[in-house]
Amino acid sequence: MRPSSRPSHGPALAVAGLAALLVAGCTRGKTYEAVGSASPTVAGGAPVLYPDVEAAKAAFSRTDGPLTATLEDVAWIRLEPNTHEAPERHPEYFRGLTTMIVRLETEVFVRPTEEVYLLEDSTGIRVTAKPESYTGDVKGGFGPRWLAEFKLVFPHAMSKEVRWLTLTREGHKGGKVRWDFPEGGACAAGK
Which of 32, 56, 80, 169 could disulfide-pair with 63, CB 3.0 to 4.6 Å? Predict the structure, then answer.
């Protein structure tokens, strides 16, 4: 048998398949990973500068399954319109608590106020919270039908000693996301 003189299309097909997956992910809106680096604003540190609020929020957003969580941080809060009203919009954050804006996209109806969320950090702290209220909506088309958005407030304060933070949803189909904080906070924010 002679070797084929026709070029192999395997690598080209793999690249085309990967490109199609990336395009499909982009057409559904922003997607975030479950793990990534961010530089939170803590005492003694300076916030990382971002070009706009969308880029800053993306740096603090993580997604796993039905769960998308955005860690509140002054790095993106200061880029919102009407910055003088920020303490009124984010009162728990400005009291020094760890707060997150959460979005659930599920196939089945859920009541987030009945679910438990666990926050853990690298110093060994483990605290739980439930949202006090949520807003819900029904989405048409393919994919998850039920949307719920709410804020989680944890009796937890960020400090320079915290190297990572995880949020675990203890509900239907779960979800676990993690933020890694570089030592000294001197790293550009990740995805």
Answer: 32
DSSP for residue 14: H
| Nearest partner of 54 among 21, 27, 79, judged by Cα | 79
Residues 181, 185, 187, 190: what is their CA dihedral angle, to the nearest 10 degrees?
40
- CA dist 139 to 105, 143, 144, Å? 9, 9, 7
The two structure tokens encoding residue 121: 């950090």
> What are the residues whose beta carbons fall under 8 Å from the beta carbon of 170, sequence distance 6 or more?
115, 116, 117, 118
- Residue 67 pLDDT > 80: yes
pTM of the entire predicted model: 0.75
CA distances from 129 to 10, 164, 173 (A): 49, 18, 18
Domain boundaries, the chain: 32-185
pLDDT digits (tens, 9 = 90+) for 43-61: 666 668 889 999 999 999 9
Sequence-distant (6+) residues with CB within 8 A of 54 are: none
Helix (H) or strand (E) holding 176: strand 176-180
Q: Identify any residues that bridge with 151 across adjacent strands, giving them in sequence order.
A: 101
b/e per residue 140-169 (b: at least 16 CB within 10 A)? eeeeeebbbbbbbbbebebeeebeebbbbb
